[in-house]
Amino acid sequence: MSTPHVDPARPTGGRVGLRRRLWGVAEALASPRRPEDYLDMFHPLRRGADLRARVVAVQPEAGGAVTVVLRPGAGWRGHVPGQYVRVGLDVDGIRRWRSYSLTSPPETADGTISITARPVPDGIVSAHLSQRLAAGDLVHLDQACGDFVLPDPVPEKVLFITGGSGITPVIGMLRSGLQRLRDVVLVHSDATDTDVIFGPELRDLAAGGRIRLVEKHTRTSGRLEMDELRSLVPDLAERESWACGPAGLLDEIESYWADLGSGHRLRTERFRTTLVAPGDGGTIQFTRSGTTVEATGAMTIMDAGEANGVLMPSGCRMGICFSCVLPLREGTVRDLRNGEITTAAVGDGVLVQTCVTAAAGTCLIDN
Amino acid sequence: MTVLQRKDVNPIAHLSDADIEEIGRRLDAIRQEVIETRGERDAKYIRRVIDVQRKLELGSRAVLLASFFPPAWLLGTAGLSVAKILDNMEIGHNIMHGQWDWMRDPKIHSKTWEWDNASPSEQWKHSHNELHHNFTNVVGKDNDLGYGIMRVDEDQKWYPIYLAQPLWNFINACFFEYGIAAYDLELGKNLKYKRRRQDPAFKARAKQTLHKIRKQATKDYLVHPLLSGPSFLHTVAANFTANVVRNLWTHSVIMCGHFPEGVETFEKHSIDGETKGEWYVRQMLGSANISGNKAMHIMTGNLSYQIEHHLFPDLPSNRYHEIAPKIQAIFDEYGLRYMTGSLPRQVGSAWGKIIRLSLPNEMAEKLKPKPKPAPALMRRRSRPAAGLRQAVAALIG
Questions:
Q1: Nearest alpha carbon to residue B60 among B247, B301, B243
Q2: Predicted structure pTM score
Q3: Residue limits of the 2Fe-2S ferredoxin-type domain (chain A) (predicted)?
């Protein structure tokens, strides 16, 4: 056994030294596992564990959305309203990570946080979230991130433009920052009035004079146009603005603000990068070697890499030994044995067998 | 697959190329069916096995703290032996085959898993997953045939040293994990020549193995016994016993996979240009199962379904028993012998072969059990061209 490493920057009092020594013994005892693996069986939310959260409640919201109330583990470092968090859920046995806006204020009486999601068509994870997730379940969590937040000090005049579930990061800001905000306009688009997530809460805020709420119901009056927005909010160029919603709306808003010369006053948040429909072949980017390869749908990622001078890990070359597995950071690939498509969202890092997998669109391989 | 044609009874003489490709297609379909239905229940299964294994290990080690008390010694040693077997077989072996990679759980993944064994997982995955599973039973390519220290096939040349191989095999069984570590390092070959001994890649791998051995030995023979205080020596004995029990068990199970009489081996060049269908048939003829109850299957890591495992090494182990009847039906339909038997029978058969082949071939031949007629010859399929094909093949060489 090696002597435990002592960090000179830390106090080396008897208690700390003893603790480290005990941990060293625990590590020796747990080998080849880690002591954490055993502790996780009994206390998965303790300090020092991988970040997880226990589901406290799953509450329905308007428009089929659900709010999931979570009690995060001791390692949770908190969040700033407007930020999002990546949540890992085991759906049909497969761990899938998705990002959701935090809808709770950073400080709650019971230390819980909440996320709100609206099911998307064919959305495996959002369906699981609304239909199967139950109080008591464990989910995996990352720390909160994102800069779609209010600055400190807050600006005089604020404009929020949201569409559909784009309201979720904004509700967090409204719930925690309203005492600081004086002049808030919220322009929200949704299909009908009953579809508006947090509709009653927003209308109460408006009725109480805390915000000016403009609701746009697209099913009856069409989508929000920029000219219309201009007449609804005549002073929009003077306002610090935050926009979150469908990609088309955000594109229009961004170019409109750019034309006004007020691009610096606008922050946008996009929930999803546009996913490419799986095709046949595509561009493979090997992120570490910096090589980009155009590959056909019949060419394995391994062959494509090797043909272009990328040193690829390899083994049996027939899909049985798993020596060639590499993380797919983003994009879509096809298993050549059965045509199965695997898609990785940004940061996902799904491990794929490069010897039996081909590109099915643009993909980023970590090698 | 020409090697089989030199046998007295060629078990695939009656199969046409089209038959072999059809077998491949049907096996692919079985594989696909399992993949499509993989899900929550499978994930729950492996998580449960891991949970049981960890609790059993923790509990047994706790009991062994009082191992000066004989019943505690017995109970703790038995529990620890089972825990170590589960860790190696149903958990370690199968996770490292990538059977659970689809769950995308970084803790239960072939890339990250390390097992309680002298051989580092990385090296074992190379010699086992890559070499053995790819070149199953190909003499000269699959070192698992006798692990390079034994003669288990008539085609391997006899030397007088082989007379002692039953003894080697017993010693290897007792210390199997170290045997495997040496095997993964290709120690025999690498220590023989100075150039190989000094190869930095080999030295790095040897260092990695020694590090692993030191860690596992520190745990079993130092830290855990020290914690038991007055039970120090009893705990050392308990841990040693558990390791030997685990080694004997895994060695027995693994011998049953490819060593019993009747399992076919293949010539080095017989796999040149092998199709996927032919690869499947080689796995079918080169593996043997162990029959038994559910506990037996779990304790063998479902390697009791060695045939199914060799056909589909990366399908979740808990599914092998479901597909076994379908696989057996394919064997029956195509007149191939599905080798299976109880553990004592298969272990006995494998030991018999090791003892028999310790002798030179003339003597070994006399002791050879009479080959059972292949089912194909009993079932006589209506395939008039089969004999003709063989004759033509022999003529055109």
A1: B243
A2: 0.86
A3: 282-367
